[in-house]
Amino acid sequence: MLKGLMKRGPRKVPRSDANDPVPSRPTASSVTVNHASRSAPSSYPPSTTSPAPSASPSPPVQFEQLPLFRDVPAAERPSLFLRKLRICSIILDFSDSLRSLREKESKRQTLTELVDFVQSGSCGRLPDQVQEELVRMVSANIFRCLPPAAHENTGTVDLSADPEEEEPYLDPAWPHLQLVYELLLRYVVSPDTDTKVAKRYVDHSFVLRLLDLFDSEDPREREYLKTILHRIYGKFMVHRPFIRKAINNIFYRFIFETERHNGIGELLEILGSIINGFALPMKEEHKLFLVRALIPLHKPKSVGIYHQQLSYCITQFVEKDYKLADAVIRGLLKYWPVTNCQKEVLFITELEEVLEATQPAEFQKCMVPLFKQIARCLNSSHFQVAERALFLWNNDHIVSLIAQNRAVIFPIIFEALEKNIQSHWNQAVHGLTANVRKMFLDMDGELFEECQKQHMEKQAKAKELEVQRELAWRNLEAVIAAKDDNMVLVN
Q1: Contacts (Cβ under 8 Å, ≥6 apart) of 118
Q2: If residue 269 lies in a helix (H) or strand (E), which one and from where to where?
Q3: What is the mean pLDDT of residues 220-225?
Q4: For the chain, what is the largest distance between any 2 Cα atoms, rounded to a whole number of angstroms?
Q5: pLDDT tens track for 322-340
Q6: What confidence category does residue 17 fall into, taking pLDDT thresholds of 50, 70 and 90?
Q7: pTM for this structure?
Q8: Which residue windows does the record flag with biased composition (Basic residues) (predicted)?
């Protein structure tokens, strides 16, 4: 028996990870959705894709010189791939541009070789162990604390600051980060990547941490993240509901808490493509997403940064299901800006796109509050708002909707048009108003005359009330003057 024990020798250490303990895999129920940006991801559950616990850059190390893939037999390439991945897991300090120059260049060359190797397809289907190490290496490089934004450095939140005017922070480590993102992208889109295996490593925790990086100030990083997340959504069908829910939570926090996030536009671009693929009849989940997340995104002051993508998503919903037009238009009216004229111009532009996809039955449900708001825009002292509202009559579909419901819409709009003709200071607005007024006259002369008659009667009544008010004030002043003359002063 003693001889048998001696023959066995010491227990072998697994090749996959000789030094690191194997963390437990979280279940779907244990994943906590937490989108605290610019903070260490300590609240995430342990995952097989998590990097080493050390957050600080590694001290200078000597990179092992490894042969190129083309210089080794095909059978040895998986093990060489694994060794190169472990070298690339070492994090270098880019805060000092002169530090570890040789190591940085060596890592860059190794990453480039890994990207080319995966992209060429010569590697075939990667072994499970290599896939796990690849995702671990990616996690070690990209999952990091984002630097504080400019408004966070002061310790106070300046609500008057314009996010569009802030200079974006460009990560000095981008030469390496770009190659890591490129490697991840090539791994995800590769036809040799089996989702049944890859979903063990590209799991919910990995997706959540990827979403947190959308708050990066570096636009180059957000562009890569957008492409990668879109590809993950398309390939990993099991993750789709989870990704939609996680994006929802980012929107909720942005709308109702922080009103600051750098990646809203990129997330909306992804959603625009997702919405385009929704099947009909549309699920109730998707309708709630429109009402609870997309429409309230019109509320933040910084809506101008991502409005183009938001407008596209909203229009996609209406084109998919025309019955949603009423909810969308009423949502726009709910969040209509009062003092921000540039935001009003954006809203009118989006309104025109929505109305183009609106059917007559849905239009009739919301036309009264809608044209009351349009009438207020027509009388805006800001010429761009009034001009953009008048341009609605250049759209043939909107004009046809108005013509079908002219008995209701004319009386609402007529007074605003007359007021512009009489007193608006801008000549361009004055000319456009005259064109719209003539269009009404040509469309239904009898109704036009009736509206004109009602307007003149209303003006006459207003003048009469004004005269009565002035007379009442004069009578009151006379009574007070008479009392002053008869007043006896007592010493």
Answers
A1: 183, 186, 187, 190
A2: helix 264-276
A3: 96
A4: 133
A5: 999 999 999 999 999 999 9
A6: very low
A7: 0.81
A8: 1-13
Alpha-carbon 88 to chain mean position: 32
Q: How many CA atoms lie within 13 A of 152 on its CB side?
A: 11
Residue 360 CA to residue 382 CA, distance in Å, equals: 31
Among the listed residues 84, 20, 96, 22, the one whose alpha carbon sits nearest the alpha carbon of residue 59:
96
DSSP string computed for 390-428: HGGGG-HHHHHHHHHTHHHHHHHHHHHHHHHHHH-S-HH
CA 69 to chain centre: 41
Angstrom distance (rounded) from CA 246 to CA 270:
13
CB neighbour list of residue 247: distance below 8 Å, 6 or more residues apart? 211, 267, 270, 271
- pLDDT tens for 49-71 read 444 444 444 445 556 788 888 88
- Residues near 232 by beta carbon (within 8 Å), at least 6 away in sequence: 188, 202, 207, 210, 239, 243
* Structure-token match 């909306």, residue found: 268
Highest averaged pLDDT of the listed ranges 27-36, 169-178, 311-320: 311-320
Query: Do residues 180 and 142 touch, judged by C-beta distance below 8 A?
Result: yes
